Amino acid sequence: MKTVLHKAASRGRANHGWLDSKHTFSFANYYDPTRMHFGALRVLNDDIVAGGRGFGTHPHDNMEIISIPITGDLEHKDSMGNVAVIRENDVQVMSAGTGIYHSEYNKRQDEHVNFLQIWLFPKEQNIPPRYGQQSFEPKDRVNKLQQVITADQNGEGVWINQDAWFHLGNLNDGFSVAYTLKQKGHGVYVFVIEGDVDVNDQALNRRDGVGVWETDSIRITAKSDAKILVMEVPMN
């Protein structure tokens, strides 16, 4: 088993006033050759956007882009004609494929929006762009892992163009849960949204992350009430 630890304070940061973004992996002006990606997981940004502000229309291609709001409302518009608001307990996936333009704005004027922006390298290049969004019940992840992203088009969660599965968990202090990887050769990256957990006895705090690979399973134990995101991705 191999592991890589990323403490919250070690992340890159870009503060533009209207945007305060923390980068687990190299992104924009933050570059660290030892932190380019974890397998297919290329970007894990923790973004806070001021009221009424946001990202103007810009292009993407051949990337799987996931948005997970933590607090607030994020308004999305794209060149496929999708107009949507993404809220807490929603998960959005955009397969950029051959190319897409989109914008993201804080829907509210009076408070910030905090969301995780996650990019994965795609399984197949140059597919037609595609949009998916789903709401999830928070009660279904209390002391268990709720699947929100799936590689199976008929599986639970939003389908993605990659052999990847994401789970959210709200764990009570002292609760322990095992995660068994679905495919050999995969790794799993655990990101702590709130609280404190141990992953295979590695202590993690708020906004810490740890990647684990060359293993069949991991065990996550809450050391306080905690919210976590578990991402299984190919390592090749």
UniProtKB/TrEMBL annotation:
<keyword id="KW-0408">Iron</keyword>
<feature type="domain" description="Quercetin 2,3-dioxygenase C-terminal cupin">
    <location>
        <begin position="148"/>
        <end position="233"/>
    </location>
</feature>
<dbReference type="InterPro" id="IPR041602">
    <property type="entry name" value="Quercetinase_C"/>
</dbReference>
<dbReference type="InterPro" id="IPR003829">
    <property type="entry name" value="Pirin_N_dom"/>
</dbReference>
<protein>
    <submittedName>
        <fullName>Pirin family protein</fullName>
    </submittedName>
</protein>
<feature type="binding site">
    <location>
        <position position="102"/>
    </location>
    <ligand>
        <name>Fe cation</name>
    </ligand>
</feature>
<dbReference type="Pfam" id="PF02678">
    <property type="entry name" value="Pirin"/>
</dbReference>
<dbReference type="GO" id="GO:0046872">
    <property type="term" value="F:metal ion binding"/>
</dbReference>
<dbReference type="InterPro" id="IPR012093">
    <property type="entry name" value="Pirin"/>
</dbReference>
<feature type="binding site">
    <location>
        <position position="58"/>
    </location>
    <ligand>
        <name>Fe cation</name>
    </ligand>
</feature>
<dbReference type="InterPro" id="IPR011051">
    <property type="entry name" value="RmlC_Cupin_sf"/>
</dbReference>
<feature type="binding site">
    <location>
        <position position="104"/>
    </location>
    <ligand>
        <name>Fe cation</name>
    </ligand>
</feature>
<feature type="binding site">
    <location>
        <position position="60"/>
    </location>
    <ligand>
        <name>Fe cation</name>
    </ligand>
</feature>
<comment type="similarity">
    <text>Belongs to the pirin family.</text>
</comment>
<dbReference type="Pfam" id="PF17954">
    <property type="entry name" value="Pirin_C_2"/>
</dbReference>
<feature type="domain" description="Pirin N-terminal">
    <location>
        <begin position="11"/>
        <end position="120"/>
    </location>
</feature>
<dbReference type="InterPro" id="IPR014710">
    <property type="entry name" value="RmlC-like_jellyroll"/>
</dbReference>
<keyword id="KW-0479">Metal-binding</keyword>
